[in-house]
Amino acid sequence: MSLPEEIRLVNDQPRLLCRERNQQAPLPGSATVLIFPKPAVHRNGITSAEPHVHFVHPSVVEDLASAETVCPSGLLRARLRA
C-alpha cells in the first residue's frame, strides 16, 4: 500500500467509526495517528491529510508505551470513573 492510499484510509477512519457507532461526528479533539517510519513526509502527503491526522515515528509510540509516567494506572482508573 502506498502512502497516498494510507492517507486516504486514515482520513476516512473517523467517519467510518462514527457510522459504526451511530454517532453524528467524532468526539471533539479526536486524532488519527499514522505510524510512519520515515523521518519526513512528502508535501503532497501533508496537504492531502485532514487536520485530525498526525504522522508519528514508531520510536515515539515505543517511548509512550514504555513510559510509566505517561498515565499511571490509578490516574487512568480515576478518569474512567469520572
What does this 3D model show about the protein?
The chain is mostly helical. The protein has one domain (about 5-80). Helices cover about 50% and strands about 10% of the residues. The protein is built from four helices and two strands, in the order αβαβαα. It has helices spanning about 5-20, 45-50, 60-65, 75-80, and strands at about 30-35, 55. A two-stranded parallel ribbon has the order 1-2. Helix 2 links the parallel strand 1 and strand 2 (about 55). The N and C termini lie far apart (about 40 Å). The mean pLDDT is about 80.
- Estimate the mean pLDDT confidence: 81
Helix amount: 40-55%
Q: What is the count of β-strands?
A: 2
Low-confidence stretches: none
Number of domains: 1
How widely separated are the two ends? 41 Å
Strand order across the largest sheet: 1-2
Strand fraction equals 5-15%
SSE order in H/E notation?
HEHEHH
Radius of gyration: 15 Å
